[in-house]
Amino acid sequence: MSAKSAFVKATSNPILLQHWLRTRMRPRSLPLLLPIVYPLAVAADWQASVESYFHFTTDVSQFSASRRLSHDQDPTQPLIESEFANKQDDFVYEPDIEISNTFGTPWGEGEIGIKAEGLIFTENPRFTHPLVGIHFIHELPLDSRLILRYTAIPDLYLGRNQIRPLPEEHSESVGDESSSLADEEVSTHFWSLGIGHRFSDRINARIYSRYGFRIYEKPFEQRDNHFWTIGIHTELEPIEHLQIVFGYHFERSLSQGRHQPELRDDTSYENHFLTTELMYDLTEILGLELGAHYERNNWTTDLQGDVRKGEHEDITQGEVGVYYRLFPKFRLMAEFQTAFRKESFEPKGEFSYNCSIGFQWEL
After folding, report:
1. How many angstroms separate the CA atoms of 316 and 66, rounded?
2. What secondary structure letter does DSSP report for 122?
3. pTM of the shown model
């Protein structure tokens, strides 16, 4: 069977598609496409924007999740086991480039683009990973537009985690819990669809949905899951130079662990995500950005012995940033971010803090 035929067959079944992604489309190979795509983009006279940030974080295991807790990112990041999380300080470098091209069609204006991003950890390089994305946007009648995206986050290291089930005879004889720990790594693929509509010069709204997979490396394959999301984003400009975004997502995830009661590790969930973001130009060259986000994961496992049965996770995050427009298409950025995460079965939650400086440049 050809690769194309295998993919067509796989798309009709979530389990087959998940297997196809694991075996035929190794996500770590996606960044290798960039040296091919980039010259084609330049030849087509595409536009580009470059961002570069330096971060300091107090929790390397939560850093990726806190950076992407936004309405237009991947807010429902993979589960982190707080008991074994790597709560270390680190400096992180984040390069980001996006190349796009606007074109005309008989039905209106369209845009296609690619995005490549990386998080490079200096003291904990095991957490270093890329993100690759492709988007397509096209105008629709009546001041509406269609937005399609594909995003891959390959080989994201989550830290050490306990292998399930824990061998009781081994733990009793040795008494060393670390002997049952292994590296946990996951790759994420998701496809998103948005339909936006401009109600007026000051009000935009978009219905948003996505479908995707999180594929775990052995020995945590029971956490493989597929998820779907539905939500709405509203963008307001109540006064000149002020933009406010409100968003709500509902997400449902089903993991393979629900079919393996002996492992007691069903990470299926129902998620509610609320966000608001504000961007205000204080002057022509100085601006302010504020954000507040809340996420609630209700674990839906019904397996006896699963620690998450009847439990939930709360995540609250806020950030404040300022930017200085040094040139019309070049601005400097500084940001402070704090997040609080807590599982209902834990005695206390965990705070994390991120400080960032960088620049944004439109080429």
Report:
1. 10
2. S
3. 0.84
DSSP, residue by residue, 227-289? EEEEEEEEEE-SSTTEEEEEEEEEEEEEEGGGG-GGG-----EEEEEEEEEEEEESSSSEEEE
Q: What is the identity of the amino acid at 172?
A: E
202: how many CB neighbours lie within 10 A of its CB?
14
pLDDT band at 287 (very low <50, low <70, confident <90, very high): very high
Long-range Cβ contacts of 113-119 (<8 Å, 24+ apart):
113/46, 114/34, 114/37, 114/41, 116/31, 116/34, 118/93, 118/94, 119/63, 119/64, 119/67, 119/92, 119/93, 119/94
Q: From CA 247, how far away is CA 234, in angstroms rounded?
A: 6
Burial class (CB in 10 A: 0-12, 13-18, 19+), 3: exposed
Cα distance between residue 316 and residue 272, in whole Å: 12
CA-to-CA dists, residue 17 to 50, 126, 186, 192, 343, angstroms: 33, 28, 16, 16, 31
CA-based angle 43:48:51, to the nearest 5?
145
CA distances from 340 to 129, 154, 172 (A): 23, 26, 35
Dump pLDDT digits (tens) for 70-87: 877 888 888 888 777 778
Separation between Cα atoms, residue 248 and residue 295, nearest integer Å? 10
* pLDDT value at residue 167: 54
Antiparallel, parallel or unpaired: β 129-140 and 144-162: antiparallel
Cα angle for residues 184, 117, 272 (degrees, 5° grid): 60
Q: Which DSSP helix (H) or strand (E) runs through 4? A: helix 3-10
**What type of residue sits at position 23?**
T
Q: Which residues pair with 246 in a beta bridge?
A: 234, 276
Amino acid in the structure at residue 110 = G
Rounded-to-integer distance, Cα 74 and Cα 125, Å: 22
3-state secondary structure at position 295: strand
Give the DSSP H or E segment for 60. helix 60-67
Residue 141 CA, chain-centre distance (Å), reads 31
